[in-house]
Amino acid sequence: MLLLDSSAIVNLVKRGDLSVFTKAHTLDLALYESLNTVWKEVYLIKRINVETGFKLTEIIANIFNIMEVHTIKESEKEVLGFSLKEGLTIHDASYIYVAMKEKLILVTDDAKLRQVASKYVKALSSIDISKNSCL
Fold first, then answer.
1. Which end of the chain is more exposed for a tag (fewer CB within 10 A), N or C?
2. pLDDT, average across residues 2-27
3. Which of 122, 116, 105 is nearest to 26 (CA)?
4. What is the CB neighbour count within 10 angstroms for residue 35?
5. Which keywords appear in this protein's UniProt record, sorted alphabetically (predicted)?
């Protein structure tokens, strides 16, 4: 099973590669991060228009109804310790921690996160799972 971070979620949605979400997990914080990415692309970068931003938001919201969503609630100290050990933000450490705890493959398009995660769990990019849709 796969644990998707927000970078992977947004890139998979933008590519229209939606089948992966039926067998995927994520964290509760990924919803905020994914929507923030849409906001950046509409408001700051102006890569997409407002209408497209709303369509992406609707798709992302629906995807979160399909995926199993995890939280770090009651594991805050462990996540903080791990983040301090690896020099990661709490956000990034949370993904690795949950992937380790739940024995999931972490999917992220953040190269630094993927590199650190690969010391603990299998870590792939969204392109990797698109090519190998049988995961």
1. N
2. 96
3. 105
4. 17
5. Magnesium
**pLDDT tens-digit readout, 42-51:** 999 999 999 9
Report field, pTM of the whole predicted structure over 0.90 = yes
Q: State the SS3 of the chain.
A: CEEECHHHHHHHHHHCCCHHHHHEEEECHHHHHHHHHHHHHHHHCCCCCHHHHHHHHHHHHHHHHHCEEECCCCCHHHHHHHHHHHCCCHHHHHHHHHHHHHCCEEECCCHHHHHHHCCCCCEECHHHHHHCCCC
Domains defined for the chain, CATH in brackets: 2-125 (3.40.50.1010)
- Give the tens place of pLDDT for each residue, 66-104: 999 999 999 999 999 999 999 999 999 999 999 999 999
The two structure tokens encoding residue 129: 């799972």
Q: How far apart are alpha carbons 106 and 83 in whole angstroms? A: 16
Please choose, from the candidates 110, 105, 116, 107, the residue with its C-alpha nearest in 3D space to the C-alpha of residue 83. 116
